[in-house]
Design brief:
Elements (H helix, E strand, L loop, with lengths): L2 E2 L13 E7 L7 E8 L4 E7 L4 E6 L4 E2 L2 E6 L8 E5 L4 E9 L6 E9 L17 E9 L3 E5 L5 E8 L4 E8 L5 E8 L5 E4 L6 E5 L2 E5 L5 E6 L7 E3 L5 E6 L2 E8 L2 E9 L4 E8 L5 E8 L5 E8 L4 E9 L9 E6 L5 E6 L9 E5 L7 E3 L5 E6 L5 E7 L10 E7 L5 E3 L8 E7 L5 E6 L2 E6 L8 E3 L5 E6 L5 E7 L13 E7 L2 E9 L5
Parallel strand pairs: 1-31, 2-6
Antiparallel strand pairs: 2-34, 3-4, 4-5, 5-7, 8-9, 9-10, 10-11, 12-13, 13-14, 14-15, 16-17, 17-18, 18-19, 20-21, 21-22, 22-23, 24-25, 25-26, 26-27, 28-29, 29-30, 30-31, 32-33, 33-34, 35-36, 36-41, 37-40, 37-42, 38-39, 42-43
């Protein structure tokens, strides 16, 4: 069980677990990262920060050692309150910020959208990028705002609480243009969380003591009065299963012929409340974080198989009585539910603030003890990379800076090393212990797995049109491939798809991973 300490070397063997890079705040422009997301097909690390110099920042998710900052767009001066980012498999990146208007006691909420292709044109020590569109709510208020998007990034869901009107404004936007598809004003006394289904056709909002599920046209298909406001909200990718917290319990609801109904209820331990929850795409796997609100220093992380009602994992974190507050901040699941991750404020000890759990083994292939508290977390689709927004100190300790960090379990047999940019180099490394040769395959992704007679493993590329480069493996079974990318602006925004095959003593074996690096 590898434990990665804060002082670990930044640059490591790509096939070993460890930190890959850190993007610290500029000391002359302090800010604390609050939210992170993988974007543009998991090629971009997308983050938002608040503080003296708030901004949205894009970093190459393939950086090694030193972070490759692609571009940054400063948020409005004085931005405070809510900050969020979202992105899907497509090229759009979204950021939410709140800026003072018309005075310091009120804020206007705005969403900015960026095209990943534009990141390739940014250059210099402070590369800048401008949004393709900006959408601002008409009202100003002193309330929270939230942001989400569907799996592709084609639709965006944004919500803001209007404390004067005691309502939550929810709008669904077109990801490419910012056009409003529909808008709803929901009677509510607050706003905690929102989520959307994989295709964007269903949305859910936890608004104070009210829970709303909305359909593709914004109509209410389910409304429930909650006993208490909750930040524990999870929505399955198919839009048919949702979970929400309640005093001492977590309810699991599934949509049937009569609408959504409770099918499971998980019970908290004495003093606990559910504060974070996540569901996988089919709603069969649940990750939940329970916090002991009585002590403030203890919490539990659980993973459940809802189809069988079986608890797959449980891990308890007990802080020191009277010590630093340890609040769980995020839980996440891969789309298939094979991996889960969590983050927390931590206790200032050597205990990990972030970790990845693996369903197949029941083990934690990666854990990390951070120097400060984790405020945001994102898990990539493979469950092998973890993106973290952290404060430089514990949340209870005064500080004005932080950084964004990326960790990798080192399990993928094919890795992209460095940011592929026009005029630069695409560097791939593949490894399988015992391999004497590596075949680097490039082509078009197949619609589904393909089994090749006489070859072990599964092909993820169409058999027609595959190009092959044969490489000699070193003693560890590793081979590296590089491509000098022409300085052609037409290549910006293009994606290439690679899979490795390994010549092993038992015969040819296809690698497990398909990588699709985005050229910027």
């Amino acid at each position: 069980m590898p434990v990665l300490l804060a002082g670990s070397a930044a640059a490591q063997d790509p096939f070993q677990p460890g930190p890959r890079w850190s993007l610290p705040a500029d000391p002359t422009a302090p800010a604390i990262p609050r939210a992170v997301a993988f974007g543009a097909g998991d090629n971009v690390a997308w983050s938002a920060s608040l503080g003296g110099s708030p901004a949205a920042s894009a970093t190459s998710a393939h950086s090694q050692g030193a972070a490759s900052l692609l571009a940054r767009d400063p948020s409005p001066p004085g931005a405070s309150g809510s900050a969020a980012v979202a992105s899907g498999s497509g090229p759009w990146l979204f950021a939410l910020a709140q800026a003072p208007a018309p005075d310091a006691w009120h804020r206007r909420t705005a969403v900015r959208a960026y095209l990943a292709d534009d990141l390739g044109a940014a250059s210099g020590p402070a590369p800048a990028v401008s949004p393709r569109w900006v959408h601002a709510f008409a009202f100003t208020a002193n309330g929270a705002a939230r942001l989400a998007c569907d799996q592709s990034g084609a639709t965006v869901l944004v919500a803001a609480f209007d404390d004067s009107a005691q309502s939550v404004r929810v709008e669904r936007l077109d990801g490419a243009s910012g056009a409003v598809a529909w808008a709803r004003d929901l009677a509510a006394a607050g706003l905690q969380e929102i989520a959307t289904s994989q295709d964007g056709s269903r949305s859910v909002a936890a608004c104070g003591h009210d829970l709303y599920v909305l359909d593709a046209a914004g109509a209410t298909v389910h409304h429930a009065s909650l006993a208490a406001a909750t930040t524990a909200l999870g929505f399955a990718g198919d839009g048919r299963t949702l979970v929400h917290g309640a005093p001492g319990v977590l309810h699991v609801l599934v949509e049937g012929a009569q609408g959504f109904g409770v099918v499971h209820t998980l019970t908290a331990l004495t003093g606990e409340m559910a504060v974070r929850a996540a569901l996988d795409d089919d709603g069969d796997t649940l990750a939940v974080a329970w916090w002991n609100a009585t002590t403030g220093t203890a919490w539990r992380f659980e993973v459940w198989d809802l189809a069988t009602g079986t608890r797959l994992a449980e891990r308890a974190f007990a802080g020191v009585a009277g010590g630093l507050q340890d609040l769980p901040t995020c839980v996440a699941l891969t789309p298939d539910g094979a991996r889960a991750a969590f983050s927390s404020w931590g206790t200032g000890s050597s205990a990990p603030e972030v970790a990845i759990w693996d369903r197949a083994t029941g083990a934690y292939p990666l854990e990390a003890d951070l120097p400060g508290s984790a405020f945001g977390l994102a898990l990539d689709a493979t469950g092998t990379r973890l993106l973290v927004a952290q404060k430089s100190t514990h949340a209870n300790v005064l500080s004005a800076t932080g950084d964004v960090r990326l960790f990798d379990t080192g399990e993928r047999d094919l890795q992209v090393l460095g940011a592929p940019r026009v005029g630069g180099t695409l560097h791939l490394a593949a490894r399988a212990p015992g391999a004497t040769a590596v075949l680097m395959l490039e082509g078009t992704p197949s619609a589904g797995p393909i089994f090749v007679p006489g070859v072990a493993g599964v092909l993820h590329l169409r058999r027609s049109g595959i190009s092959v480069v044969r490489l000699r493996a070193d003693a560890s079974g590793r081979a590296d491939f590089t491509w000098s990318i022409p300085a052609d602006p037409a290549l910006i925004g293009t994606t290439r798809h690679f899979q490795a095959a390994f010549r092993l003593p038992a015969g040819l074996t296809l690698g497990r991973v398909l990588v699709s690096p985005l050229v910027l």
